[in-house]
Design goal:
mainly alpha, 334 residues
Length: 334
């Protein structure tokens, strides 16, 4: 009795898994033996090396393998106990020698109790927060603060408070204002880090816009297609943010001789971040318009839900917190 072609194929395929399993077992056993030979050869080579013999000899001369503690480790603990820093630990390698990547503590050579007490006093400073929910504030001021948080993430406010911390009145109030050099140096360091982060995010957004414009369904619509227009606006805003950030990454020395001087400086220094936010808003709008044009209901609903949650969280964050005081804006850097 002859079998048809399908039946023959079914009989062959029914035995194929068993064949694969047998091959896998054979290969696994061979690979396991090969790994055992390799590790045995490695262990024999390490035991024959002169460095390993030296370490083994040192371990034999110690009192007990389970409680071996080198003199360097004991010295490290003594230094740690007498140090006037919060964390100073010398790590030891398993063979009892010091680690090359150890943290060297800064000790107090005279063990001055006044110095230790002074350091503890500086680290125990506390303040009480007065958020808008607990502090009576005029409605106009509340709306202004909430709008600043939702539109520009309160970045100009923080920048103004940090810049204001560098300004102080002269000895004679009628002589105007002057700039505190130490606080200005701290402000420049904080501002440079902020600009570096903004430029990095703007570069990522620039790449996202190029990728969005390269989509065939977007490019085929032409320059009159609104998502493409908005994406180009986002791209140009990101470029402007990067260029402006490079221009002001190291702020020129400044003294607020009047309120106009101060407002101009805050506007110029905050412009890279504002351009970056404009780029983000343009890109989000381009995506939403594209979803609506192609009736992508799921994507449109997801966008509405996500950004609604973002705005709600920003509002709640503003309600339960308060802006940092001028003395706190640069307190961690001075």
């Amino acid at each position: 009795m002859t079998m048809s072609v399908p039946e023959t194929l079914l009989r062959i395929l029914a035995r194929f898994p068993k064949l694969l399993l047998a091959i896998f077992k054979r290969c696994a056993s061979t690979t396991l033996r090969l790994l055992q030979y390799i590790f045995s050869f490695r262990n024999a080579f390490i035991l024959k090396s002169p460095g390993r013999k030296h370490f083994a000899k040192g371990n034999v001369e110690s009192s007990s393998p389970s409680t071996t503690t080198s003199d360097d480790c004991k010295k490290g603990r003594a230094v740690e106990a007498g140090a006037d820093v919060s964390s100073a630990t010398i790590l030891c390698s398993p063979d009892g020698s010091r680690d090359l990547n150890q943290t060297v503590p800064t000790t107090n050579p005279n063990n001055d109790p006044a110095a230790v007490q002074g350091m503890r006093g500086r680290t125990s400073r506390t303040l009480s927060c007065e958020p808008p929910l607990r502090k009576p504030t005029p409605l106009s001021k509340r709306l202004n603060g909430l709008l600043s948080m939702l539109s520009v993430l309160d970045h100009p406010g923080f920048l103004g408070r940090a810049l204001g911390a560098t300004q102080q009145n002269k000895a004679n109030p009628g002589d105007g204002r002057e700039t505190n050099i130490e606080k200005w140096t701290a402000f420049c360091g904080v501002f440079q880090k902020d600009i570096e982060n903004i430029n990095l995010l703007a570069t990522v957004l620039l790449t996202a816009n190029f990728s969005f414009l390269a989509i065939q369904s977007i490019d085929a619509q032409g320059l009159s297609y609104w998502p493409q227009r908005l994406s180009y606006a986002s791209l140009l805003s990101a470029m402007g943010s990067i260029l402006m950030g490079l221009a002001v990454r190291t702020p020129r020395f400044f003294t607020a001789h009047s309120s106009e001087y101060f407002q101009i400086m805050v506007l110029v220094l905050g412009f890279p971040f504002e351009l970056f936010l404009y780029s983000v808003f343009f890109f989000i709008t381009a995506l939403v318009v594209h979803f609506v044009t192609h009736t992508a209901k799921f994507q449109f609903a997801a966008a509405i839900l996500i950004f609604s949650l973002v705005f709600v969280c920003l509002g709640l964050y503003w309600l339960v917190t308060e802006p940092q005081d001028k003395d706190l804006c640069l307190g961690s850097c001075c």
